[in-house]
Design goal:
Length: 144
């Protein structure tokens, strides 16, 4: 983990702002996601395990669940992939996923405001957001 004191303070403030207690594992997890959006729990664990040897994969999952529930993170679940986490939470963006290597990029909402897609039938639901995953080949996989 390579967080400097200023960054750590900002991360701690983000955690406090959603009403959660600041802990070393929480700051470490948030730091990894700040540096690498669209990351899964196992890769987060691998990034922090040497600096926090007492942390487990289960603890990382607990931090991610708390952050997601508090609105600090967004959890996305592309097909055939573990859940991925990102900090971009306050909009209705979508994702494009490489079907070869699994790279993920953000895609701004196609039309207008949330939910920016209207279902043919909402079955009485009040639609608040829409999640879309576009699939294709990233530039690296197109040339590889």
């Amino acid at each position: 983990m390579t967080t400097d004191v200023t960054d750590a303070a900002a991360l701690a403030d983000s955690i406090r702002s959603v009403g959660l207690k600041v802990t070393e594992p929480r700051v470490a997890v948030l730091d990894v996601i700040e540096r690498e959006p669209h990351i899964d729990a196992e890769r987060i664990f691998q990034s922090i395990r040497t600096s926090l040897p007492g942390t487990s994969v289960q603890a990382v999952h607990g931090v991610l669940a708390a952050f997601s529930q508090a609105g600090l993170l967004r959890r996305i679940e592309p097909a055939h992939s573990p859940a991925l986490y990102e900090r971009r939470v306050d909009d209705n963006h979508h994702h494009i996923v490489c079907s070869a290597c699994g790279a993920v990029e953000d895609v701004d909402c196609a039309v207008g405001h949330s939910p920016c897609l209207v279902p043919s039938s909402a079955s009485g639901f009040q639609v608040q957001s829409a999640e879309v995953n576009f699939w294709g080949l990233c530039p690296n996989c197109q040339t590889g």
